[in-house]
Write a structure and sequence with these properties.
Structural class: alpha+beta
Distance between the termini: 19 Å
Helix content: 10-25%
Radius of gyration: 23 Å
Largest sheet: 5 strands, mixed, barrel
Order of helices and strands: EEEEEEEEEHEEHEHEEHE
Number of strands: 15
Shape: elongated
Number of helices: 4
Strand content: 35-45%
């Protein structure tokens, strides 16, 4: 059995539904196959951009470089980019088909991040209240103060209303989210910030998000994760199609977003 993810929520240990090994899977994009003399392996994590490259990954069976001439070789290492199909278990990928990167059918990756402000426009419109406290220095000080707020979740700069120049404190909206009282947080931030400000409510604090990320990183077949804009973004080795629903049930909807997987089931 392939345990995709084990998680604990609210202190209750819970192992999410395992994904059965032996089913045919295909890489969602191209992956690097690399052999430094110890046998072919499928790279799915970080790849050192040395020459030749280096990586750690799954051992591969059924791979013969003679069948895949679309590869490079240097200093005894062979590597190439392929879209692969096969079966997966805890430590090994058994390849049954491989298509070189130039011939692979890979959907484009669409990444859209919403940096707009959730607050309604204030009466009289968005405007700077105190230009003397709307500088790069006061912006930095206010962001530092935001991180110290009880229940701090995230902070970002809304520059969607700005054409040019960017990064002008007088033309951006400083956004802060907290799990506590937004009004109390805004009062504290106004001690240093005179520019446009939106303080809104979050459901999960940055501390809690960091704990969730650490928890996920300890699970089998975690590939990568990070915290951004009040959300844990997760990439895993295999998604059976129901993982996002299970993450929502475990951590709360919108807390962990599945950004993708190296493999998906075929059919």
């Amino acid at each position: 059995m392939l345990l995709l993810l084990a998680a604990s929520a609210c202190g209750n240990d819970r192992v999410l539904d395992p994904v059965a090994a032996g089913d045919t899977v295909r890489s969602t994009g191209t992956v690097m196959v690399l052999d430094d003399g110890g046998g072919p392996q499928l790279c799915y994590g970080a790849i050192a951009e040395s020459m030749p490259p280096q990586c750690e990954g799954l051992e591969m069976t059924g791979w013969d470089w003679a069948d895949h001439p679309e590869h490079e070789e240097q200093a005894g290492t062979r590597w190439g980019e392929f879209q692969v199909t096969g079966t997966l278990d805890e430590t090994t990928f058994a390849v049954t088909d491989a298509v070189p990167a130039d011939d692979a059918s890979v959907p484009p990756v669409e990444e859209e991040v919403d940096f707009s402000s959730p607050c309604p426009e204030p009466e009289g419109g968005w405007r700077v209240l105190d230009p003397e406290r709307t500088t790069l220095e006061t912006q930095e000080a206010t962001i530092s103060a935001a991180h110290r707020l009880p229940g701090f979740s995230d902070v970002w700069l809304d520059q969607t209303r700005v054409a040019r120049p960017m990064n002008d404190p007088r033309k951006l909206i400083l956004n802060v989210r907290v799990t506590g009282d937004p009004a109390a947080a805004e009062k504290e931030l106004r001690k240093t910030w005179g520019g446009m400000l939106c303080v809104s409510r979050a459901t999960v604090s940055k501390e809690e998000l960091d704990d969730i990320q650490d928890e996920l990183a300890d699970q089998p077949h975690h590939v990568s994760s990070g915290v951004s804009l009040g959300v844990v973004h997760l990439r895993v080795l295999l998604d059976d199609g129901d993982l996002q629903q299970r993450l929502d049930e475990t951590y709360g909807k919108g807390t962990v977003i599945l950004d993708g997987a190296v493999f998906e089931p075929v059919g």
